Amino acid sequence: MDYLSDGLLFLALALPFLGAIVAPLSIILLDRLGSLVLALFPVGALAILFQQSAQVQARVPILFGFDWVPSFGVRFAFRLDGLSFGFAFLILFIGALVVVYSGGYMPRGSKRGRFHAYILLFMGSMLGLVLADDLITLFIFWELTSITSFLLIGFDHEREAARRGAVQALVVTGGGGLALLAGLLMMREGTGLSSLSLLLSAPDAFRTSGVFVPALVLILFGAFTKSAQMPFHVWLPNAMEAPTPVSAYLHSATMVKAGIYLLMRIFPLAGHSTIWAVALPLFGGITLVIGAVLAMRQSDIKLMLAYTTIASLGLLVMLLGIGSEIAVEAAVLYLFAHSLAKACLFMVAGSIDHGAGTRDIRALGGLRAKMPVTFAAAILGAAAMGGLPPLFGFLAKEEVYAATAVADLRGVLTTIAAVAGNALMFAVALLVALKPFLGPLPSGMRRAHETSPMIWFGPMLLGVVGLLAAIFSQTTHQFISNPMSPPALDGALAVDIALGFHWGAALVLSFVTVALGVVLFLKAQGMRSGVAALLARIGWGPDKGFDQAMRGLVVMAANITNRLQPGRLDVYMRVTFGVIVATVWITMIWTGSLPSVPEMPRLFFYEWAIIGIVILGILVVAFSTSRLTAIVSLGIQGLAVALLFMLLGAPDLSFTQFMVEILSVSILALVMTRLRLMPADRRPWRKIVPEAALAAAGGLGLGLFLMAVTQRPFDTQLAEFYETYSYTIAHGRNIVNVILVDFRGVDTWGEIAVVLTTGAAILALVRIRASKPDARHSRKRRRRAGELHP
C-alpha cells in the first residue's frame, strides 16, 4: 500500500506539538494574549485538513507516512478519511477554543505556560491517535493520551485529590492500553496485516482468523477503560480534580472519545459478531442508566456533567452495539452533538465558578442579571444536551430513538435505557442551565460578575455552532456526518435528517423524555437524597474497590520484595547460583546434550601442573580457617588462568588477567582488614553442606557443559568475521583489543562503570565502618576523663 510523503499533512499533525514547545515562552512574553497566539496552531492544523475535505467527502482515504522500523514491518503511517476527519475537526476546533478559554481562566502565577504546553501535547496525541493507520503507531498515540492526561489531571499536584485522580486515570486507562496492545499484536500476527487500511480492505482476514475472539475481547477491554464504561468509569469523575479547561476538553473531544473512535474504526471488522452484539449493548445500557442516575446525586456542577458524560458514552457504545445502519448514523450525530454541548456546559461551569466563586448547585441562584452571556450559553448548551429543537442535539436524539425503537426484546430494553438515560440527562441539563441563574440572588454573591470575553467566548460560540449545525443540517452532513459514517458502516450512507417534526415512535419518545426530564428536574432534591441514601446503604463501590486493589497491590509488592530482597548477601548468592545450576543441568538433560562419556582433553605436563595449582588453591580456600588466607588463595585460580592464556599465545590477555587478579585480591584484603568481620567461617555443618553441594553441582555442571561445547564442530564464522573486519573497519591488528574496544566498546564501557561504582561503594563502606569505632573509643575516653556524664 502506497503512502504519501505529504509535508503539509505531517505539518498538521506536528503543529500542536510545535505549539507545546513554544507555549511557555509565548505566555511569558505575551501573558494572556499568548493563548490567542497558541490557538493559531490548532487552527492552522484544521485549515490544512480542510484543504483535503473534497477528497474526504468523496470517500477516498488519504494515506501518508514512512517506514519507521522496517525490520519489524512498523510504519509511522496515517490515514485521513471521513471518520478521522470528523474526530480531528472536533479535536482541533474545540481544542483551539479551550486554549483561548485557558488564557482567561487560569490565574496569573499558576504556571500557565506549562499548562498550555500540556494541553497542546494532549491535543497532538489525540490527533495522532485518530489519524494513525499503522497498529503500533495507533498504540503509541493511545498511550501518549494517557500520559498527557495524567499530567493535566494532576496539574495541581500539591493537592492529594489531584494526585489520586491522576494516578487512578493512568492505572485504569494504562491497564486497558496494555490489553489493547496485546489485542493489536494478536490481530497483526493472526492476519499478517499491520495497518488499519489493509484490515479494512480485507475484513474477513480478521473475522476468520484463529485470534478473532481473544483479540476482540482485549481490544474491547482497552476501549471500555478509555471510554469509562462500567465498572471502569471510576477514573472519569475523579479526573474533575483537573482545572476546568481540562475537563471541558477531556470530556468533549479527546480522551473519553478515544474508545468510541476505536469502536467505530473496527466496526467493519467485528460489528456483526456475537460478542460485539452482546457486550456493547449490555455494557453501554448499564453505563447509560447508572451514569445518569449518579449525575442526579451530585451537587458540584462539574461532577454532574462528568456523570452525564459517562451516560452519554454508554449511549454511544449501546448504539454501536445495536449495529444497524441507522444506529451507527445516530452514534455519529450524537457524538457531534454531545461534543459541542458538553464542551459548552463545562466552560459554563468554569465561568460560574470564576464569576460566583462556587460550583455548588445548592448555593447558586439569581445570576441571570450578573452573568447574562454565560446564562445564554448555558441555555444553548442545555437545550442541545437535552435534545430540544432547533439544536443539533434534537436531530441526534430523534435518530437515537429511531435506532432503538425496534419490535424485539433487545429493542424494548435499549429503548427503555435510552429514554431513562436521556430524561435524567435532560434534568441535569436543566439544573445546570436554570438553577444557578434563576430565583433570588444569595446574599453572599453580590459581587458575582460576568467573566472576561476569553472565558465566555468559547461556550457561546459552541452553543451557536450547535444551533447553526441544525439549521444548516445539510452542510453539516456534507462535511461531517456523511464522511464519518461510511468508514463505520463499510458502505455508502446518506444522512439527510433535518429540523422538523418526525412523525412516528421517535417523536412520541421525545415527548416522553422531555416530560419525564421536567418531572425529575422538579424533584431533583428528593432524587439527590434518595440516590445518596441508596449508595450509602450499598457502601462499597468501584471507586472504593480501586483503593482496595491499590492497597493490596502495595502490600503484595512489599511481601514479594521482602522475600526476594531480604537484605542478606548469602541469600542472594544461593538464589543466583541455584538458578544458574538449575538452568545448566535442565538444559543439558532436556536437549540431550549431556556428555555420556566425557572426553578429557589432551594436555601437556605443564598444563596438568597448572590444573594441580588450581586444585590446590581450591582446597586451601575450602578448608582455610582464616578469611584473609582464603581470599589470598582465591587469587590462585585467576593467576592460573592467566598462565594458561600466556601458554596459549595471548600475552596481552594474560597480562590483563594478572592485573585484575592482583587488584581484586588487594582490594578484598584491604576491605577485610578494615571491616570488623569474624576472622573465620563459624557456620554449622548443616549450612555448609548444602552450599558445598550447590558449589559442586555448579562446577560439575559447567565443566560438563564446556566439554559438550568443545566436542561439537567448531563454527568459524565469528572468528572469520573478526579476522576480516578488525583492520578494515576498526583499524586494529590486535583482534582481542579490537573486540574489547570497538566491537564490544559499549559493553566494556559498562564494565568500567560497574568497577568504578563498586570501588566507590567499597570506599564509602570502609570509611563508614572505620569511623564508627573511632567515634565510640573517643566517647569512652571522654567519659573516663569526666567530660561526659554516663
TrEMBL record:
Residues 691-769 form the MrpA C-terminal/MbhE domain. Pfam families: MbhD (PF13244), MbhE (PF20501), Proton_antipo_M (PF00361), Proton_antipo_N (PF00662). Its main location: membrane. GO terms for molecular function: antiporter activity. GO terms for biological process: monoatomic ion transport. Keywords: Antiport, Cell membrane, Ion transport, Membrane, Transmembrane, Transmembrane helix, Transport. It is a multi-pass membrane protein. It is found in: Cell membrane; Membrane. This is Putative monovalent cation/H+ antiporter subunit A. Residues 71-115 form the NADH-Ubiquinone oxidoreductase (complex I) chain 5 N-terminal domain. The chain crosses the membrane at residues 7-27, 33-50, 84-103, 115-132, 138-155, 167-186, 206-225, 273-296, 303-324, 330-352, 373-392, 412-434, 455-480, 500-522, 571-591, 603-623, 630-649, 655-677, 689-709, 752-770. The keyword tRNA processing does not apply. It comes from Aureimonas flava. Residues 132-404 form the NADH:quinone oxidoreductase/Mrp antiporter transmembrane domain. Residues 613-676 form the MrpA C-terminal/MbhD domain. GO terms for cellular component: plasma membrane.
